[in-house]
Each structure stands twice: as C-alpha cells, then as structure tokens.
Amino acid sequence: MGKATVGTLGEEKRVDCNIHLETKKSGGIDLELHSKVEVMYGDANRELIREGLSFFGIKNARVIIEDYGAYPFVLRARLETAVKRAVPDINDEFLPEFRDKCLYKSLRGRFRRTRLYLPGNFPNFMINAGLHNPDGIILDLEDSVSPTEKDAARSLVRNALRVVDFYGSERMVRINQIPMGLEDLPWIIPHNTHLVLIPKCVSCADVQKVDEKIEEIKKEENISQEVFLMPIIESALGVIRAYEIASASTNVVALAIGLEDYTADIGTQRTKEGRESFFARESLVNAARAAGVQPIDTVFSDVDDVEGLRKSTLEAKSLGFEGKGCIHPRQISVIHEAFMPTEEEIEKAKKIVTVFLEAKERKLSVVSLGSKMIDPPVVKRAENIVRLAIKTGKLDENWRNNGQGL
Fold first, then answer.
1. Rounded to an integer, what distance in angstroms lies between the CA atom of residue 312 and that of residue 114?
2. How far is it, in rounded angstroms, from Cα 393 to Cα 397?
3. For the segment 231-240, what is each residue's pLDDT rounded down to a tens digit?
C-alpha cells in the first residue's frame, strides 16, 4: 500500500489545497474534506475527487483534503500527483477540459517587452496574471520549484495551460536545465505552449535537444503549430557561445540573459550600476542581432525600486534590448512605459517606412531618405517602432492604411 502528501504549505495556500492519500486493501473510499468553501463547493469537490480516484482505478483509499478554495484544475493536479506518488506505475492523466480562451496562437515577431515569471507550483499567482497585460507569462518549472515538487509543478502547469485565461499574453514555460528539462516537455507541449525558455544554456546542443524533443512530441500528438524557443544565457561560456546558441534553430525567436547566475559564474556580485555585466549584455545583443532574433534583458530584482527599474529599462533599451524580465506585476507598466518610442523616434520611423514602401511600389533597388541610404535593418527597426506606436496608442491605427505590410 502506498501513501503520499501533496500541496502548498506556508503563506501561499490561497486557491490551493493539501491532499493526503493512503491506498488500502479494502473498505472503499474514505474521504475527509475540510474546506474554506464548503457551503458553495464542498459537494462538487467531493464528486471531483471521487471521479478522479475512479479514473485512476483507486477503489480503496483514505483521502484527507485541506481545501483553501482550490480551483478544480488545481484539485485535479494535486490529486493526480498524490496518486502517482502513492502508486508510481499509474501513468494516465486526469485532465480538465481545454477551454477555448486558451487556444489562441502567437507570432514569431510579436513584442516581448515584458515576461512575467510565475512559480509553477503556486496556483494563486496564475489565476489573474493575464489581467496585468504582460507580453508574456512564464510558468516556471525551474528555479522557483523545489527539487521535491517538480512532479507536482508539472501537473499544475499542464492543467493551467488548459484552463487559465492569460488574456492574450504569450504562453511561456521555463523548463528545467538540460537534461532534466527534456522530461518537462511532454507535460507542456501538447497544451498550447507558445514558447519554451531554455535556462542556463551553454551550447547549440542544448537548443537542438529541446527542438528535436518538441518535434517528436508534435509528431506524436499531431500538433502543427510552431513552438518558439528562448535560450537564457547565464554563464561565461554561454556568453562566449551566444551567437552559436541564438542560431542553433529556426525556432529560436529571442535570446535572454540571466545575470544572477552569470555574475556568480564570473566570480563577482551583481550591482545596480551593472559594470560587471556590460560585456555580457552587449555580447548578447550583438549575438541576437547577428542571428536575427530579439535580445531580451534580465530581471530587475528589487521590486520596490521603481525608479531603479525605470533607469535599468531605459539603459537596456539604449543597449539594444527589446524586452526585460519581470518578477512582480507592478514592474510591467514601468517597463512598457520605458520601452515606449518617443515622438521623435516615431516621426523618424514613419518617414523611413513611407520612403521604403514608396520605393517598393516603384520597384527601386536603392532606398534613401534625403542624402542617407536606408538599409534593411534600419527599415526593420522603423517598422517595429511604428507597430509599437500603434499598439500603445501613440500612432493612429489608420496610419496603417498608408503603411501596408507592417
């Protein structure tokens, strides 16, 4: 007979539960539920638990549940983990229905100014994360999850991908460091994951292993949509190999840097001034641009220092970065504002795009603005500025009528 306990302890109990399960030889199901929402959802939750036990073929067990208002997808994930810990040879999945609001797609060149990290084993952070309008939401299976809870986080993240409305944010998952991260992929790829972050990436082989595993899963599950990749550079070796990593697969759309691990790797400490990481950050921008992908800056770890975050983001923009990581929702609007194009940038971009489109219509091979030649990278940057200006309301949508193709 097996037994297992699963759930969130400490201060993060809201919308979660603790489940203790012990299988037994006879006596049927002995279910004990202590719920904060007994009046409204007690009977429904009991039915859900019994349904889940039946699904896994568990006919005799003692189950004790401390429910702190857990959503059904959380109850299912916790029960599944408890069953699989108690009876390791059970491989079936107890999934909630896939909701239509979770089926939207992403685009290769979409804006990735902000990506909000959410610990993969804490559902209370997931429920309303999309309301803060980050460009991307990262369900994290790596550093924010303790080694003993990796299995629980996989079940919870998979169920969240099927149920939680992220309001149009790009659906991202940070897997564990390779090779463990390869074991995460079957849990997330079939459930409309838009982008996979590859942490502590040190070689093109890391990227290719992930890419190949994703393609294998897509073939098995008959999935046609693209799954994008964002390697995270977090070491001296990774910085040296940044271009190799960024160009390792056509599915790589962005290259990010993580400075906490990087500064530890080079034997120093991270400072707000950032002198110790200037070489790494500029190397990453150069590698990303050379590979034709987006360079994404690290997180700003002091959530109370709003002015420091603004300065850090403006610096990142001046270095060539297109986005920055977030560890708290209050950072999102500050970063978006800092990445906002200025009126001068918008006007210059409009002129460049207009000249380019006119030259294209006239089938001219040379594009110039005044006495200056306009190269394709300049046009691409101008197009991005115009797109961002339209997205943020600084440029009227009708301007698009004079700039088709953006």
1. 13
2. 8
3. 999 999 999 9
